[in-house]
Fold:
Amino acid sequence: MYLMRRPTRPSTLLILLLTALLLGSHTADAQETANSRQARRMFDHTYQMVFGPQGSTLRYDVNIIGILKTNGTIWYKGKKSKFLEPRHCSWNDGVKDYWVDQKKKTVTLYDADSPNKDKYMSKFAFNPNNYTYYVVDGKKEGYIITLEAKKGVKGIKHVKAVIDKTTRAPISLKIKLLWFWTTIKISNFRSGSISDDIFTFPAEKYKNYTFIDQRGK
Structure:
């Protein structure tokens, strides 16, 4: 299967899934129900908490149908991002993106917006108008927002997001792509107080690694 051939960057998978799921506001269709409009408003609020100019950070635990499991911490602020995992880590300062493989001892440098970093990005194309929305009160679990792809939509077919009832912070995501499910549990979420210094690549720490420059490719 396509995704299973490239299991080495689960953090990119997480970034793509979160970004696809937590898109900004879009004009609501006239046929949307009150419940659907409420679900979209809740998404918009959570989006601002995660991807707003104040920045955010969270810990994630990813499980792809029990085959691929990983965990780490990620930071966002505008176009900048950073993640740390046991094997892989990345610093994206909005201009350059450094990918570190601590097992192979390599640092690969990309342009921040290079499409070559991840060949399966198109698999996560997401148009919010291609889905129906519904929200229910999951009681102690939190609010559960469900997205179902309309007929003929490719890529992400089904999303179930749980958000905190008081803070609206994300708690977990369960996403169906093709025939398999990906579960992402989120903890230690904080919105705001994210310094730009966090996204500066610590070159001295990796000075003995092999450097691979992929910019402009």
